[in-house]
Amino acid sequence: MITAFVPCRKGSERVKNKNTRPFAGVIGGLVRIKLEQLIQVRSIDQIVLSTNDEEVKAIGRSLGHAKIKIVDRPENLATSSASTDDLITYVPSIISAGTVLWTHVTSPFIGAEDYDEMIEAYQKALGEGHDSLMTVTKWQKFLWNEQGPVNYDRDIEKWPRTQTLQPLYEIDSGAFITDISVYQHLKDRVGQKPKLFLQEQQKSFDIDWEEDFKIAEYYWKGQSHSF
């Protein structure tokens, strides 16, 4: 049993009506796009849409698909001050068994085929000693903190070729996959040895600011989509 968990709270401090406003001409916006994508994922059995937003619920109901289960999100978990850790602890109360794929409507460029590929990679990774999977992007650039470089040694070479720099990986929050037991016992959405699933930059694009929304619309309009 594989369940997609889609958290979608009402309101956005940075992008007004981010989840539900029309996106690149799509009525129902990012919520509709993501639900349509997840419906098409062959290996997903159920989609849990966790929300306190009546408009989000209406969009979910309008699709009329048996996979979609709408769950009222408690108000204490729907405020801007609610932590992700609190939401993680809540998940086992609405998903009791199987594998959980946590994803967000703000990642519109991750499509059905991508989710199928992630799930296949996760299942393979279990046999390789991993206990979870999360999507990442690779950074192989000159990266510093206030003390100096973090991925190369200037005492050895001041400006090495970028190809030789130690790669670092950014968690892009596109998807997290693990068994519900990890949520129950570790209070986390990844286990102790997650598989890093590398995504290209556009797939990892996350809409967090108004400018992001406009950029994503531009790219979406330039592609052919059937969700």
UniProtKB/TrEMBL annotation:
Q: Which InterPro entries match?
A: CMP-NeuNAc_synthase (IPR050793), Cytidylyl_trans (IPR003329), Nucleotide-diphossugar_trans (IPR029044)
User: What keyword terms does UniProt attach to this protein?
Assistant: Nucleotidyltransferase, Transferase
Q: Name one GO molecular function term.
A: nucleotidyltransferase activity
Query: What's the short name of a Pfam family annotated to this entry?
Result: CTP_transf_3
Under the heading PANTHER family, the entry gives: HAD SUPERFAMILY MEMBERS CMAS AND KDSC (PTHR21485), N-ACYLNEURAMINATE CYTIDYLYLTRANSFERASE-RELATED (PTHR21485:SF6)
Report what the protein is called: Acylneuraminate cytidylyltransferase family protein
